[in-house]
Amino acid sequence: MIYFDNNATTKFSLRVQEYLRKGFIDNWGNASSEHLFGQTTKDIIEGDREYIANFLNVLKKNILFTSGATESINSILNPIFCSENKITSVISSKLEHQSTLSAIDRLKKHGVKILWVKNDENGVIDLKNLESLAKQFPQSLASFLYVNNETGVIQDVKTITRICKEFGCLVHLDSVQALGKYNFDLLKLGVDFASFSAHKIGGLKGVGLLYIKNPDNFVPFILGGGQEQGLRAGTYNINGIRSFRFALEDSKKWNLDSITNLRNKFEEEVLKLNDKIKINCQNANRICNTSNIYFPNLPNQAVALDLSRNNICVSTGSACSSGTTDPSYVIQGLGQTKNYASSCIRFSFAYFNIHNEVNRTIEALKQII
Ligand code: PLP
């Protein structure tokens, strides 16, 4: 199998595989139990929290483990969070991940004013427009993607945060697709909240985290026991948390230059197939592993299926939106037509992909198109 769908999920990292084989059976204690066995589990979790906090250059107390980025995002873009923090307006972009858009949709039903910031043809946020919205609606909650999951376009988060802070807005950053693939210092970015997911970097599914700069601002989304300093109830997912830490450790070994070279080689070769083929957002600042390609007049679902028959896994958009037949709203949000969007395919690479896989995919595409 050739797996070029790493933005949907990626292979368990080596240390995670090792842990699944050995550690999964032993670590079954409840970290909230008072006995020594429970406390050993708690110590392991706290060690992992510390490792992850150091990785992100933040403090341990600012890291809250969740069931994934979807939960993290829903904890912030949440009617209760907004009402308790007296937030009456949200600024975001129409190119966000579905979890953000759905949460925003609910906020709207609860009377929160939604302000959509404009973007250019690459999906880059219009900073002037952001400034004018933040000025008109100070103390809003702003939520943006760091890296777009479909196009790989990276936002200028430092400037976005500076503008938002100037007008007293809180900033949430969906950092899922940046983790491991892009060097950043969460503290220096200055955001108030950030969401992450383990399975995008080689950890288990069903575990993520929420960074909270000021835990006093946070309103628990899930109530129950006193886990996570009372901020997120539910028995600790020790295996998920362990996998997150191990995957992060392994991600330090990723050679981002070689992923970039592989992606660039793929794009160079794909452009030779037909002179009408286009690389979406080609000239924007993009993450190293993502390529979104327009194949003129070819239905993307048919191409993806043909590639799948050749044991090549790609995607026609976000995995979370699959099942819908609608062409990608992200590509349409770049100013493209529905028709254009229905001919676009995302190829997302990882450290384990090799040049021979690119060559085989190009050969398969030659047959298909
Ligand atoms: N945000 C982005 C940018 C994503 O790519 C994803 C995963 O599809 C999510 C949020 C949701 O993450 P999770 O699968 O951990 O709920």
What does this structure look like?
With 369 residues, the protein is α/β, with parallel strands linked by helices. The protein has 14 helices and twelve strands. The chain has a seven-stranded mixed β-sheet, sandwiched between helices. Strand 6, helix 8 (186-189) and strand 7 form a beta-alpha-beta unit. Helix 2 packs parallel to helix 9. The relative contact order is 0.16. The mean pLDDT is 96.
Count the E strands. Answer: 12
Low-confidence stretches: none
**Structural class label:** alpha/beta
Helix content: 40-55%
Physical arrangement of strands within the biggest beta sheet:
2-8-7-6-5-3-4
Q: Ligands bound here?
A: pyridoxal-5'-phosphate
**Average predicted local confidence, pLDDT:** 96
**% residues in beta strands:** 5-15%
What is the 3D shape? globular
Number of helices in the DSSP assignment = 14
Q: Major β-sheet, in short? A: 7 strands, mixed
Radius of gyration: 21 Å
Order of helices and strands: EHHEHHEHEHEHEHEEHHEEHEHHEH
What's the N-to-C terminus distance?
21 Å
Layout of helices and strands:
Elements: E1 2-3, H1 14-26, H2 36-56, E2 63-66, H3 69-76, H4 79-84, E3 89-92, H5 98-109, E4 113-116, H6 127-136, E5 141-145, H7 157-166, E6 170-174, H8 186-189, E7 193-197, E8 208-212, H9 238-251, H10 256-273, E9 278-279, E10 290-294, H11 300-309, E11 312-313, H12 329-332, H13 338-341, E12 344-348, H14 355-368
Parallel strand pairs: 1-11, 3-4, 3-5, 5-6, 6-7
Antiparallel strand pairs: 2-8, 7-8, 9-10, 10-12
Helix pairs in contact: 1-9, 2-9, 6-7, 10-14
The structure holds pyridoxal-5'-phosphate.
